[in-house]
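Record type: monomer structure entry
Structure origin: computed from sequence
Chain ID: A
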Amino acid sequence: MLAQNSSVPAPTALATWQQLYFGTFTGNGALNSSPAGDGVPNLLKFALNLNPISPALIPWTLTETPGSLVYSYSRSSSAVNDGTGFIVEWTDLLNPVQWSTAGVTQTILTDDGTVQTVQAAVATPADAVKRFVRLRVTHP
């Protein structure tokens, strides 16, 4: 009889982060929990390289240029390497069903191995009255 090799997969960066801060994946360690009481869920704090047990403001800027809105944010390199998705979306109506990624281009401006600074250009037509932008974070 042949012996089977059994290997335990390495924990994800997210799982390691949850264990480091909370020692658990439930309660305060759950991805949608906000133990700092600031309304920012753990998944977003992991993705943006923020401390989950300290109140935080999401670091971002939004500027307008001819033909586009430029949304800039910083994200964790570990989260990127772990498969976390960073989706910049826009809408003109604030209707969640109508969020779109059409015309959005993201560019990494800096990457120090820990944090990446990203700039997302959101195309805006000349006759646009208003346009709203958001960052949606997903994890496999």
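Annotation 1: Strands lie at 60-65, 68-76, 85-91, 104-111, 115-123, 132-138.
Annotation 2: The helical segments are 13-22, 42-47, 77-81.
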